[in-house]
Amino acid sequence: MLRDAASPLRQTIRRDARSADRNGSNRMTDGSTLVQAFIILFREGLEALLVIAALAAFLRRANAAERIAPVYMGALAAVVASIVMAWVFATFYDGNHSDLFEAGVMLAAAVLLFYMSGWMFLRQDPKAWQADLNRLAERALGAGTMLSLAGIAFLAVFREGAETILFVHTLAKTANGFDAALLGGLAAATLALVAMFVAMQWLALRLPLRPMFVVTSAFLFFMGLRMVGQAFQELQEQALIPFTTDGVPAFVSEWGLSNGSWEALGTQLAILAVAAAAALVSLRRKAGGATEVREGRPVSAAS
Predict the structure, then answer these.
(1) Nearest Cα to 70, choosing from 180, 166, 171, 145?
(2) Domain map of the chain by residue range?
(3) With contact defined as beta carbons under 8 Å apart, do 297 and 291 qualify?
(4) Residues in CB range of 42: below 8 A, 6 or more apart
(5) Which of 31, 88, 217, 286 is most buried, taking the most CB atoms under 10 A from its CB?
(6) Are residues 60 and 141 in contact, defined by beta-carbon separation less than 8 angstroms?
(7) Cβ(33)–Cβ(185) under 8 Å?
(8) Sign for the pseudo-dihedral over CA of 89, 91, 92, 93
(9) Residue whose C-alpha is closest to residue 208's, from 126, 302, 99, 118
(10) What angle do CA 284, 223, 106 make, to 5 degrees?
(11) 159/108 Cα distance (integer angstroms)
(12) What is the full DSSP assignment across 170-221?
């Protein structure tokens, strides 16, 4: 039997709504509204912000700050698309989001994240960038790569955007509408996310180049694995994939590494094994003297 997949946030909103009904009122306290509005936006926006901040920091370190615009444009387009999808869900699906649609978005985002993770891993050698940084950045960050960056930003925001808007709308209905408490919580969450973004950019500019590339590559890969697990959760909620939990270590789900099922965990471990094997092959080739060949052909390595 599938465990209750509803997030603590959804449960809290529903609990407060039931409590308000029992008390003969459909309103929550201002403090509860502010806190829940903050949690909704901060929790749902955090992963997207971390991905976008990592991409922006990478471009700055690659002397390609002028190419950050597609990343921001992808995120902005996702906000607009999220508003449209939230309206569609509210109008035609009684405010319920589509698990299958969300799973598809997550899997597409995971593919792009894995691609960019590998792309950055292959370019972690500082010599490959610092020998002629501007020339290599111009050639390696071609149209295909920039389209991938914009796509990652779009999907990172879009995968949770519509649901976040629906959460806020539900909270407004169970509280006092879009009052000062709700707007204050959203504003506080926005400020917290912006502060985290600025801090990440400041730190990234002070990290050595190789660790910056390796850390960013590992982070994007981890986010890709998380999205695979979340996509499995959506499919399992629709009973399209079995949900087997016997023997799965508790920390796997408690630490957010997977959704606690062998189906999701097994897929994630298989992806991890393939990536580890590919990384070892790449490192062995470099150790065997193929580094010069890769440095001389940055375009083919990126394709």
Answers:
(1) 145
(2) 8-16+27-302
(3) no
(4) 189, 192, 193
(5) 217
(6) no
(7) yes
(8) positive
(9) 126
(10) 120
(11) 10
(12) HHHHHTTSS-HHHHHHHHHHHHHHHHHHHHHHHHHTTS-HHHHHHHHHHHHH
Residues 142-168: b if buried by 16+ CB within 10 A, e if exposed: eeebbebbbbbbbbbbbbbbbbbbbbb
Sign of CA dihedral 25, 30, 31, 37: positive
Distances (CA, A) of 222 to 111, 215, 227, 228, 256: 12, 10, 9, 10, 11
Q: Tens digit of pLDDT per residue, the chain (303 long)?
A: 334 444 455 555 545 444 444 444 445 577 888 898 898 899 888 888 888 888 888 888 777 777 788 889 999 999 999 888 888 877 776 666 677 888 888 888 888 889 888 877 876 665 555 544 445 455 556 666 778 888 888 988 887 787 788 888 878 877 778 888 899 999 999 999 999 889 888 887 787 777 877 888 898 899 899 889 989 988 998 889 999 988 888 888 777 778 889 999 999 999 999 999 998 988 888 776 544 544 455 444 443
User: Could you give the angle at which helices 99-121 and 30-61 cross, rounded to 10 degrees?
Assistant: 30
